[in-house]
Amino acid sequence: xxxxxxxxxxxxxxxxxxxxxxxxxxxxxxxxxxxxxxxxxxxxxxxxxxxxxxxxxxxxxxxxxxxxxxxxxxxxxxxxxxxxxxxxxxxxxxxxxxxxxxxxxxxxxxxxxxxxxxxxxxxxxxxxxxxxxxxxxxxxxxxxxxxxxxxxxxxxxxxxxxxxxxxxxxxxxxxxxxxxxxxxxxxxxxxxxxxxxxxxxxxxxxxxxxxxxxxxxxxxxxxxxxxxxxxxxxxxxxxxxxxxxxxxxxxxxxxxxxxxxxxxxxxxxxxxxxxxxxx
Length: 279
Description:
It is built from one helix and 23 strands. With 279 residues, it is mostly beta strands.
């Protein structure tokens, strides 16, 4: 049960205030949000939602800094954007003797609880030491945990700073890239048919890039934009508007925008014919 609590405590590097930024939310009649709920940015809907309300999310996380009530209209409301060193406190799904650095994972049915998972790859890590004994070696069991969010799962780092993170996007249908997909690894694992990836329908900055990894024996293609752009393979510029396709499992393409054209860096599992250039 959401408790409407502001969970930000401090910053380990001395920042005196949390980073608060606006995020788009649905009308409260569709999705209420309590202050302090862990929320995820749903790329399909374009809204932030509590993690227990999002059916399919990629862990692009922020934490509600205010409340969206049932009679509120769709709007931009404030969210805590987790940075490195930002310490939050939330309830544990089960009391535990949490140690410094323990991994914490999300609870599917609860947006204000975390689960301790010592051996897992957590979305957050414990940084609290208030349960360490002054004497002896026995940690005190606690029902709440102080933590920092793994920046790989922070909306701030994924979509604003985009610093050295590799988002993984699994596709089984056609997809048009967004500017925020820069650096992402796109794959077609599980696809039962051809999957086409289209470059962003917007002006992208020089150096914008993606990697496409073929994980199913199906055509996995890249359609360059704008239509005047060419794909450059092994120094040879293909005709404008032609797209590149890989088909064998294990093949991949790195595609980088140089301001005019797309430079392709390729690895193929078989003959050169494993990559095709098509209209």
